[in-house]
Amino acid sequence: MPDSPLALPSITAALGPLAARFDVDVVEQCDSTNTLLLGRTDAPSGSVVVAGRQTAGRGRMGRAWIADAGASLTFSLLWRLPRGASPSGLSLAAGVAVAEALQGLGVDGIALKWPNDILRGGKKLAGILVELAGSAAVIGIGLNLRLPQGLPPEVSRGAAALDRELDRNAVLAALLAALHGVLAQFGTGGFVALRDRWQALNAYAGAPVRVIGEFSVPVEGICIGADVDGALLLETAVCVQRILAGDVSLRPA
Ligand code: BTN
User: Fold this and answer.
1) Which one of 39, 222, 223, 249 has the largest count of C-beta atoms within 10 Å of its C-beta?
2) Number of independent structural domains in the chain
3) Top mutation candidate among 32, 58, 66, 249 for ligand 1, by most atoms within 8 Å of CB
4) 2 within some domain
């Protein structure tokens, strides 16, 4: 079980020369690392807050991110895109970084579920919440090291954890290093520069799926993958439909 405490010297050592590109703040507890960084938008690009525990962790679509103290790696990265760069597809790009970093650590069964869930063995291992504030993007990532106690059964059925001996400082460093590379590519080439890598990780490629919008009727079709800007392409009975990030969640039909 990955029980090593968060420690800045260990994170810095694991980052090696890349440590100079990040400004990491380790906090024992906060409400939400995203909220904390959103209050520091004048902070330099590469600012990171990692928390041992969040008291009000937030997920997409107003949901909560629930984790027991120490059972989840919860952190946010503030990143500034080059002037004029579009943030479309940024959360998918971040998913590519997380997925590839986990594969690099030897974690098996990793795939991506549009828009930005990281699955292990078909169940949710990690989630990403990207929030924009002016020229800054705050990229929040929650990764289950162990499953929280007392999760509602409908949530725990669909949840996965790393459940293996990995130093959380090394995992954080690997994720930050991967994000550094992916975000540099995203900054110059946009999501399209990473699209093939996203497609290769798409859990539902070619599969029949149902997309449930927050306020719209469900749509069913074949999951073609992500468009050049990160929109989901769904082949329905009548056309290829573009589904925009943030509006929907995806479920096997
Ligand atoms: C989702 O799957 O809905 C996204 C979950 C994102 C959770 C992370 S934990 C670190 C950061 N701080 C937050 O409050 N949320 C993100």
Assistant:
1) 223
2) 2
3) 58
4) no
